[in-house]
Amino acid sequence: MSFGARLTRRLLTAMGVVSLAAGLLTTAVVGESSADTAVPQSARSVNATYHTWAADVNARGGGEVHWSQCANYPSTTNCDWVIGKVSQDWGLDVICQRAGQTIGGNPYWVLVDTHVPAGAYAYQAWIASYYIDYPSNQLPVRTCNGVEGI
């Protein structure tokens, strides 16, 4: 075998090893599922739309008197103003979530913007996460920081 042929074969072998390594690295990085990689709370999506599994779910706020208590610890007592009732077909943009009064075994509450049918008014309110149609108690959204909400 000539010197040129040997050099070409070595170069092709080296290039193949580099390509294989790059391919494996790409597969390792791109192939990771969300279950394998923890996503920081601050980086999670705020724009996902959710729905309730129940009809006529109370959407609550603290009103003028209890707004800070409602925002700091959502509960039926602190969020005593029922702003409206959410239907299953309404879309809910979850802004953030925080722990509050446990409802149905779920301690989380979500601050939502509602998407309502024509003729109804949209609003921002707290809803017990128990009523959100999602397989886990905690949604993949950020935790509320400070006094947020109404």
- Compute the CA-based radius of gyration: 25 Å
Secondary-structure-derived class: alpha+beta
Residue stretches low in confidence (pLDDT < 50, at least 5 long) are 3-45
Number of helices: 2
Can you count the beta strands?
A: 6
Spatial order of the strands in the main sheet?
A: 1-4-5-6
Biggest β-sheet, characterized?
4 strands, antiparallel
The shape is globular
- Fraction of residues in helices? 25-40%
**Separation of the first and last Cα atoms:** 81 Å
Please state the average pLDDT score. 73
Portion in beta strands: 25-35%
Strand and helix order: HEEHEEEE
Overall structural domain count: 2
Keywords: Signal
Protein name: Secreted protein
Organism: Amycolatopsis carbonis
Signal peptide: 1-21
Walk me through this protein's architecture.
- The protein has 150 residues and is α+β, with helices and mostly antiparallel strands.
- It folds into two domains: 1-37; 41-131, no CATH class.
- 25% of the residues lie in helices and 27% in strands.
- The chain contains two helices and six strands.
- A hairpin with a 2-residue loop joins strand 4 and strand 5.
